[in-house]
Design goal:
By secondary structure, the chain is an alpha/beta fold. Helix content is about 40%, strand content about 20%. A five-stranded parallel sheet has the order 3-2-1-4-5, with helices on both faces. It has a five-stranded antiparallel sheet with strand order 10-9-8-13-14. The chain has a four-stranded antiparallel sheet with strand order 6-7-12-11, with no helix packed on it.
């Protein structure tokens, strides 16, 4: 049933919310939010925990929710790894999307799927509100809420970090202790940095990383060995593509999530996918982040290689012109916008003949393309050879082509000489 809100999607008032779906990790922050929702709003809470390949055991989230009084029928823990990769990561990879030329959008692309499932669960359970744990300084609050409003325009949204009076981690721990919420020893005091992870990447921000001129401590990196410690022997792999999506590794066809998992392992062992950048957040500030995207880095290099063989020049160059716009839409949270869907249709059309195999060498942080082949290749040995091309290309034709291209330049030159 649809979720209705007479307030037209405005901030809900305390006492107006009957049931709320919380994006729940099972960690300390979202456990505090769960109890806060019960205490402040007096609302029935539904917890939703998504397995996007973050690499953590999720059953403890169920036990924590039960400990905090959540009914069994109101606890949702779902494995969304295949949907995440097939319906979100791969469409983005078809666009070769990089935000500000560097960031592979690992956090950004996960938010629309979480938002979609929250809204679906709200409909299923009759909830009239949704809640997320994103802070009021970051991009994720925008991404979640644009997704919520796009899919359910009148939904009530609760954002605790923009509402409550707590200003520090000590305040939160005091709240937890007051309400008998277990606080692990490693959660006491200020966290050295914050981490978000899924099957595509891990991101680390804040605290020890806030000085953009300070090298990240080695312990920040969790998904990759350092390039210096990677094996001295290269790893050779072959990635197969069909309609722009990776479908096989070394000739073995695999599911979308398994493809990414396998590439993550290969990238991790070879020190691939580390990025340290200062980015421009949508909310207006610059932030420094350390990202690890081992499998995605390999996938991007392989996809561009197979496109170089199978995409027409005009199509390839148009895609490259549109890519920054597409990446910005994903970064800013406009996955469900009509313009992103329009760009996706164009990109997907371009991928109809993007198929074949790419051979890659992985070595000490590098992804090196060493071969590519395709039945749909536009590459012609006869045209590019320096030997006799048997009349396929008349080199004399180039003279007229050059003169036509130079006409406006010659006209400008003559004016300048006058």
């Amino acid at each position: 049933m649809p979720v209705e809100n007479d307030a037209g999607g405005t901030k809900p008032q305390k006492g107006q919310v009957k049931k709320v779906v919380l994006a729940y990790s099972g960690g300390l922050d979202t456990s505090i939010i769960l109890k806060w929702l019960q205490e402040v709003y007096g609302a029935e809470v539904v917890t939703f925990t998504a397995d996007l390949g973050q690499g953590e055991e999720l059953e403890p989230a169920r036990k924590k929710a039960e400990l905090l009084g959540i009914k069994e029928e109101n606890i949702f823990i779902e494995d969304l790894r295949e949907e995440f990769v097939a319906d979100y990561v791969f469409p983005m990879m078809r666009a070769n999307a990089l935000y500000e030329g560097v960031y592979l959008l690992g956090t950004s692309i996960a938010r629309p799927l979480i938002a979609k499932r929250q809204i679906e669960i709200a409909r299923q359970t009759g909830a009239d509100a949704v809640c997320h744990g994103a802070t009021g300084k970051g991009n994720d609050q925008v991404r979640f809420e644009l997704g919520y409003y796009a899919l359910e325009p009148s939904i009530k949204i609760i954002a605790p970090w923009r509402e409550w009076e707590y200003k520090s981690r000590e305040d939160l721990i005091a709240f937890a202790e007051e309400h008998q919420i277990p606080v692990p020893k490693d959660k006491r005091g200020e966290a050295p940095f914050s981490v978000d992870a899924n099957l595509l990447h891990s991101s680390s921000e804040g605290k020890v990383l806030e000085d953009p001129n300070a090298e990240p401590p080695a312990y920040v990196y969790m998904r990759t060995v350092s390039p210096e410690e990677a094996p001295d022997k290269a790893t050779i792999i072959t990635v197969g593509f069909r309609r722009g999506d990776a479908v096989s590794i070394d000739g073995k066809e695999l599911s979308a999530a398994t493809i990414l998992e396998t590439l993550n392992d290969l990238g991790r062992d070879n020190g691939i996918g580390r990025v340290d950048l200062v980015e421009n957040r949508f909310v207006g500030m610059k932030s420094r982040g350390v990202y690890e995207t081992p499998g995605g880095t390999i996938l991007l290099a392989a996809h561009r290689a197979i496109e170089s063989l199978t995409l027409d020049r005009g199509a390839a160059h148009l895609k490259d012109e549109l890519m920054p716009r597409y990446a910005e839409l994903v970064y800013n949270g406009f996955w469900f916008s009509p313009e992103r869907e329009m760009l996706q249709a164009l990109i997907d059309k371009s991928q109809e003949n993007v198929e074949g195999e790419v051979r890659l060498k992985l070595y000490k942080g590098n992804v090196i393309v060493i071969g590519r082949k395709s039945e749909k290749s536009l590459y012609s040995d006869q045209l590019v050879t320096f030997e006799d091309d048997e009349g396929a290309y008349d080199q004399k034709d180039a003279e007229g082509f050059i003169k036509l291209q130079a006409l406006r330049l010659r006209t400008l030159g003559m004016r300048e000489r006058k």
